[in-house]
Structures are given as structure tokens and as C-alpha cells.
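Example (one chain per record):
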Amino acid sequence: MTSAPPPAPRHRWYAAVYDAVISKGGEKKLAPIRAQVAGGASGQVLEVGCGTGANFAFYDWPKVDALVATEPDPFMLARAEAKLRALEPAVRSKVRLLEAPAEALPFEDASFDCLVATLVYCTVSDLNRSLAEAHRVLKPGGTLRLAEHVASTGFEASVQRVIQPVYGWFAAGCSLNRHTEDALRSAGFKLDVTQRTSLGPLYPAFVGVATKS
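Predicted structure:
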């Protein structure tokens, strides 16, 4: 029997300051990453954990037949809805927003050509279950385009472990030290890492395309 999905997160104040914090702290670095990840999506697309809708401006919309953007936090979703209203009508007509967790996607098997996720799998409550769901809803040969910060090595890894309890509380459950690349491969994806980068101290990150084999 499949266990129930986790309760929806509710981070009213984190949602309120998220765009301002990201803009000040690293959007200049994130913008080309978003363009690479979201900009390469095409066909029937699912964005998991769309947050405040920061990726909407980076899609190559002529290549997107339809986009479903999910987000479990209603406060984040409300801000994504505001960004959606600012888009051109022809683009808005392609987009559907849905409150749903990455661990329990409400879609049939093999529903999408492409999934998009930027800085999402660092925050989900169950990484393995979330990636299994991504694999399930992708069509054979479909791709998960993503960017994630991950566990570091050496001394930095020790610092990540020490500060994680406080950091996780402050950052709405975000985890500094997940081994997302290994988890992707365990979930049945073939991972092509296209870029390794850093989003700041203690934030080693990768950009990649994971293919459902």
C-alpha cells in the first residue's frame, strides 16, 4: 500500500522574501542556469516545485506545447500565479498551475516529454520517492532537466553537516548535503552532467539532463 503524501509545506514569510533574497544573493548566477534548464524544455512539460514562478521568464515558449507547473506550498503558488498573470495571453494559455507535492504527482504514467526542476530536490521531504515519481510520469526517453546544489566533500562537508539543522529550519527544509546525482541514477535515470558550478560557499551545484532509460 502506498503511503500518504507528506503534508503540504506552508512558509508564508519565506515565500514573501524568497524572490528578494534570491535576487540579491545569486539570481545573476542563477539566470543563465535557468535559461539552460527551462530554456531547453519542449513538448509536454512538467515543472516540479515551481516555487514563485522564477523559471517562467526563461522558457522558450514556442517549443513548449503545454506546461503544468506544480508547487506544494500555497504561499509560493500564489506568487507564481501573479507571475503567470504578467505573461502574454498566448503564453498563459499554455500554462496550468497545480498544488501538488513532488512525492505524489497526480498524473498518469508516461504523461510528459520533459520535466524541469531547479533547486527543488534539495528541499523535498523524500528525495527517492520524488525521483521515482519523476521517472514514472516521464515518457520513455523523456528527460528531467535540472539544477541542484549538493553535498560537498572534505572540510566543507563537515561544515554542511554541522549547520544543517539550523539552516534547514531557516531555509524551509532545504538540505545542504544531499547526494542527488547518486539518487538520480538509483531511480533509473541516465545522468549527463553538463555543468558543475558553485552557487556560493557551501553550495556546490550541478546542471544536468537525466534521461529515462
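Caption: The CA atoms of residues 156 and 169 lie 20 Å apart.
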